[in-house]
UniProtKB/TrEMBL annotation:
Database matches in Gene3D superfamilies: Hexapeptide repeat proteins
Full protein name: Putative acetyltransferase YvoF
Pfam families referenced in this protein's UniProt entry, alphabetically: Hexapep_2 (PF14602)
Superkingdom, taxonomy of origin: Bacteria
Amino acid sequence: MARRTTRYRVEGANALWHVYKTVPFLKVVKNFVVIQAARYMPFLSVKNMLYRRCLKMKVGENTSFALMVMLDIMFPEKISVGRNCVIGYNTTLLAHEYLVDEYRLGDISIADEVMIGANCTILPGVSIGKRAVVSAGTLVHKDVPEGSFVGGNPMRIIYTKEEMARRMEDREK
């Protein structure tokens, strides 16, 4: 499935030159300060509070953002993360893309109990299903089905929900 983004055409210089026509400068400055403070914040509850109150993100209970996670500075409010998730070290979540002739905005939706490994990049307009696992270093450029294990660049499904269940059963034997 294609990513769900809204496209906005620009004229003249590339879309990034138009950035402060698309998002207020002071919003970017505030978001930058909050996100940089949170990247180094050792207290997960304080980090989640900053995300909820200052960035207007939806963050579920017991969700853990590891050290150095980089959220979208311009549109963090387009990111929602369910309960009891782990977002791995140095992962980047982008709700925007600035290209030459256009920019695109899209929500990121991460369901409950998702595990995202270190150094991943989540692109705008994707959903990650409940109990999915994203391997370290993955570029998430399309939706991740519920319960699946995905990885790589480009991302591919390594195990489906059913295959993961069988593997877990075999482990218990």
